[in-house]
């Protein structure tokens, strides 16, 4: 290759000399078979390997950051957003009930059959043991009021429901009272031996329960119930299974097995006598009407609406949270609006949007002149001004918001100053003058209306409301705990995010343009509006995006100064996360907010163009 | 190569730091969660300092009690509970217990006997609500008013809150349904012992909201316990509800022209829970701490710093003077007979059952 001069490199070879790329291309041009590297492998392969290594090294350098971002930012957000459609809780807690409801014809207007109520008993018993029923009640309460109290009440009593069977088995033979006997009946011999040998001080070392062969075939329901019981005691409760007595659920399962024709005649394992005696006796047992028992706890169980709601929210994914987030509701009759006194989210979304726009507008109005001063003052004064702009950045957000509370409240600085002004000589002289002037203006406007009416053929007096300070509520203005408070405080807090991008753009606009415009006869206004302003638009764009997106997700400032009317959707999200614990709805509201911001960003890009946004230079 | 070494060293440090953090606890540390402010200070002086001195364990304070339920739920889902002992109100304790997020407690086994020889069950009596809650204090939510803004007829009745003609001005109420609904019904003519029967029905809930609607424009809704004291001190409101200990500090410590309206105060309890899912060593330490912090003397000591009543009967005779002000604390306790002429006990079972329903309605009403 040494015979090729560097000048021969053409085309993409912008760098002359022995770069890996040039070497590859030269090798190809040489067209004399693969060029070999020193170790005999083709040069191309060897170079590729070297390149891959350097790429890998680059990836490894950014890997910590990448992993950090994925683990701490993207994954939690994705997980949170997924909660907006996730609805495993119903099917996980009431699997048998959901399955039994498949056969229920809801159009009859009757509650489901007894088998469904029995399935409900089995599910509820397990749920109460696992303490899952209250969460399920809260979940279903989002869709139908009264579900939470229904599940709580039932949970307190469901454990007693099957005790009839337990008592009867125990009365029949004391054998059934003792958990040890049950273990001997249900467990394998090797497991029983392992339990004997277990050192109970090692809490985690309890040998897991193993079911005796053949029992699951002979007594299917009992086997399942006992398996669940054993697993729960050993794994969740972490108690010694040898010292516990089975759940009432196990007894009712045994009753079911024996009455539904379980054949115990061929059984030869332990406790054969007791089991056969029980099989002979169960036909005379008193039984339980589960439906009556549940309706006895709360008559809502007889209400088909309750069952329709359970069935409707059975699937593992739901759009219920999203519907709720737009004031709608999935009912058995289809999707409909919620009752008027529960509709709040659309109002809140709209309010958040309008207020964020108002705050952005206020920031432009107030920030533009300040940025202009910053860009055009001599360096000394500009620096001082810059410090004043940055000062709020160095003060805690809570301190700034609380300061506004002191300023704006009814007994605050602003109101005190106004009251003081009205009591001074100046105020006393000026107040009547202002009142008179205002009333002259109002009178004149009304006269115009009166004449206009007359010309349009309407004859009649116009209602005139005269100006007074009292009518303005002037004694003490309500500046806080409402929309005004939020807009004032947030405009102040977000102002630097408008001023800084504006300033960095304005600093690059040469002042000679304005002078040139004026020298060619433009007025001050024309020179500003036609020459200066268009060049500062990218700064406005960048500032507006920053301020608007920050504002739309703001939480703490509206919470403190917004009262009930000046709060944002984010306050609602926070309420559902930390207080009502409706995480699904919070996730749905958050997803909608995120989608709205992305949509607005996209619209902004189409209308203004994201390339026209400059943060500097 | 120096750079490589520095990089390696700092990576090693980060990993070591992260794993130490993931472990959560140094061998001798425990994290105790409480409400912050004057309340945490009283616990620090009455419980934490003596305990640290006695055992050498160092206690880390976390002031997250207001979000305890949601945070514990999240920690439980993540399988990494970093709190050892949590201070919560009884209603939250019941909620955590219901969901299996708090450990069940056998009071007589876990808690010390009273100094007078009574067992823990006898000593705490009916305050042992639920299976997981370890009571610490009795507090009350009650009203305070500006003495200089009520003219010559200071209010003696809780219904003054709804009487905007006699007592014009803003009022502060908590931004939630609990307590407000009860007061609204009482002042709408419902007998005290029928309040919860009425509140159980849709009409009753609407009746309470309608009563609240008569003063909706005059209310500033608070969410932090410090709000009402600040609003009272600034003269923003004529009266407002808050915890009695907060009012005590406005009246006695800051000498503001504020007085207590004890009428229809609602008693509530605050205490400890121990989260489930702790390692056996951490659980043992948490139990040891709780046993120490809820003995007769410790509970009485806390009343030196804040005007909340100790939950043990045996502590009551030991309540003495305020540690700094030197005034007798007994007359400032919500349980003092003079203050407790007309009281209301938070109905835990009712609110556990109906909280979801009523709170959703109340919040929607508030936002409209």
Automatic annotation (TrEMBL), chain B:
Keyword Nucleotide-binding part of the UniProt annotation: no
Keywords tagged on the record: Signal
SUPFAM superfamilies referenced in this protein's UniProt entry, alphabetically: Periplasmic binding protein-like II
Pfam assignment, any one: SBP_bac_8
Position of the signal peptide: 1-22
InterPro entries reported for this sequence: SBP (IPR006059)
Protein name: Extracellular solute-binding protein
Organism field: Sulfitobacter aestuariivivens
Lineage: Bacteria, Pseudomonadati, Pseudomonadota, Alphaproteobacteria, Rhodobacterales
